[in-house]
Specification:
Length: 323
């Protein structure tokens, strides 16, 4: 592995490793003082109203930071970072680790010396303020540490796009480009959520299954999203006109077509927001990547992305009066 990437991966993994070690040390130290079932859910007044077995809680307490740390490290090694983009990514990792670590620690101490399943544990809402405060402080620390590292080279593909492919249009000529994004998991996920909601509604109670059914029904019209490039800019929509993602031409600097990595660059699938980029990501593969005026990237995975990016560059040039 490149030594520079190794250093950045270690820096990103560090807060999750600290949280993991802290959780294991606390669990071992306090094991004799913890009940068999820990209070893990609390009402608005701070009283316990939900419980989890001690073994299950401790396993999840160790598993969550380990998985989050692995995900952040993978993205640090395999993701694309240019300029100071890594700084915000690192800050987000530190904030996430601190937020989870604070809540886990508070929950463990709230259960110390309480009876098994008894309503002795309390959790005031002020702890949420503490969790967000810890996340803010950790984010500042992560950002400061990342700034100590040299900046990465600028994105060569974004620079090349300024001189890249265009689609020639005559004066007064109008053009548009539309493609659909085929994806098996979007309709599958939507249908699974609807079915799960129906089962939970009849097996338990409507309040349990209704949210899943609503979310699934909302997702269904967008199980085959459409990507449009025209004089309005870049638009991602479903079978219904709303909600949709609209990036107008005046916000776009350049556009290019390249392969993106769903997990390494965007942390997963769907509508993704990262420190220096966002996008509608349905798979790994070719995508239109628009570099915005504020320096962020917006990506949408779609076939024939080269044509869409070229037309987008032409329309941006025309709006600015460039030939």
């Amino acid at each position: 592995m490149n030594p520079k990437k190794l250093g950045r991966a270690v820096l990103v993994a560090l807060p999750f490793l600290v949280v993991l070690i802290l959780a294991l040390v606390l669990a071992g130290t306090l094991s004799d003082r913890l009940p068999g079932r820990l209070a893990t859910h609390f009402s608005a007044t701070g009283e316990a109203n939900g419980y989890t077995g001690r073994t299950t809680f401790l396993v999840l307490t160790a598993l969550v930071p380990a998985l989050l740390g692995a995900c952040w490290t993978y993205m640090a090694v395999r993701g694309r970072f240019h300029g100071r983009a890594y700084d915000g990514f690192t800050a987000a990792g530190y904030a996430t680790a601190a937020f989870f670590g604070y809540l886990t620690t508070v929950t463990l101490f709230a259960n110390v010396d309480t009876a098994d399943g008894a309503p002795g544990a309390t959790f005031t809402m002020w702890h949420l303020v503490g969790a967000f405060g810890s996340a803010a402080v950790a984010a500042a620390l992560g950002y400061f540490l990342a700034r100590l590292l040299p900046a990465l080279p600028d994105d060569p593909e974004a620079a090349a796009a300024r001189e890249g492919a265009r689609i020639p249009l005559a004066d007064g000529e109008v053009a548009g480009w539309v493609r659909s994004m085929a994806s098996w998991w979007l309709p599958g996920t939507a249908l699974a959520m609807v079915l799960a909601g129906v089962v939970l509604t009849f097996a338990l109670r409507p309040v349990t299954g209704l949210p899943l059914m609503v979310i699934g029904l909302v997702l269904l019209p967008y199980s085959r999203p459409n990507v449009t490039v025209d004089r309005r800019g870049l638009i991602v929509s479903g079978l219904l006109p709303w909600p949709r993602v609209h990036v107008p031409l005046e916000r776009i600097d350049t556009a290019t077509s390249r392969n993106v990595k769903a997990v390494a660059e965007y942390g997963g699938w769907g509508y993704r927001v990262r420190p220096t980029r966002s996008g509608v990501i349905t798979r790994s593969g070719e995508a239109i990547v628009a570099r915005l005026e504020n320096g962020r990237d917006f990506a949408v995975t779609v076939d024939d992305s080269a044509t869409g990016a070229a037309l987008l560059n032409t329309l941006v040039d025309r709006r600015r009066g460039r030939s």
